[in-house]
Amino acid sequence: MQRSIVDLDMVRGIRVDDGRVGVTVALTVAGCPLRAEITDRVTRAVAPLEGVSGVDVDLTVMTDDERAALRTRLTGDHGQAGAAGGHQHGPGAASSNPFSDPASRTRVLGLSSGKGGVGKSSVTVNLAVALARLGHEVAVLDADVYGFSVPKMLGIGHDPVVIDGMIVPPVGHGVKVISTGFFVGDDQPVIWRGPMLHKALEQFLTDVLWGEPTFLLVDMPPGTGDVALSMAQFLPRAEMLVVTTPQPAAQRVAQRSALMARKVNLAVRGVVENMSWFTGDDAKRYPIFGAGGGQMLADDLGAPLLAQIPLVTALREGGDVGQPVTVAEPLSEASQVFDTLARHIVELGPGRISRPELRISG
Ligand SMILES: Nc1ncnc2c1ncn2[C@@H]1O[C@H](COP(=O)(O)OP(=O)(O)OP(=O)(O)O)[C@@H](O)[C@H]1O
Ligand SMILES: [Mg+2]
User: For 193-247, where are the alpha helices, taking DSSP H only?
Assistant: First the structure.
């Protein structure tokens, strides 16, 4: 759920002086990265109202007590409350991973691939938008420390706001995002070994004000087992989707990531084949990267092939400029595939996949 600044007690005063409206908004911190956006959005909301000739937005800053109250309000409403030790402010301080709670209603979808560059992040972002379009609350955790790209793909240009140690995730195209990219400089190499990655993931899960999304999508780094191991520990009910391209070599590598997931007891729910074909001007489908890899992998894993996503220029361009194809061209072939994939995942439900080898034949 996204809250309005009125709900959050951030609007501190409204003055009307002969058509000129002054709005005072209290920011959480003086250097709040959202100051320009808040000013802009308040102005755009008020300016079109009847009789308004001008809008002035004044910004002030919350006191420590006000900020603590806000934090309590934000964390208190969705079951993260309680468990905190004596040093936290107020009763609502969150300190546990809300997704490991058996009562959590969030379905966690882990997107993995054997190798890089197969379109895992593109699939994550567009699937997230497609699920949000269906009316679900969606969050993305970009856990790909080596190639974090989700914020850019979702057009998020600022870092998260931190309120008293709790991280408020920025929202892009209706999707909440936390990325390792927010916490390391753009041009710095990321050299995180397993334990550090593990710690970072844990922190993202516990210190971020996630709310209670219906879906949390995790963009996992390609190949390595470290993140799969951490996920198995922190998100034991995560459902894995394996992304592959159609050529047999990619399929074999993808299989390793699926087997890794199985080894740590994460359910592999299905396969997504990306770059399946290019539709030419002649309306013919050209299988540029070969054909059949997705189905082969699905058969090997005993999991369904959930989608085949075509190769389209708008998908790459959309990622580069922060306008996913599902936003920029919602009726295009690729967007329809993402919509169908999203519906399919909703229909599948959270249950663990049936294992054909365990079926009793009769
Ligand atoms: N179906 C598609 N059609 C056209 N371009 C695509 C498609 N899928 C992905 N791409 C492009 O291919 C490149 C790699 O995609 P993406 O970054 O999503 O892959 P990835 O598996 O997350 O890679 P990495 O391992 O680097 O994280 C990007 O430039 C993306 O825009
Ligand atoms: Mg990626």
Answer: 194-207, 226-234
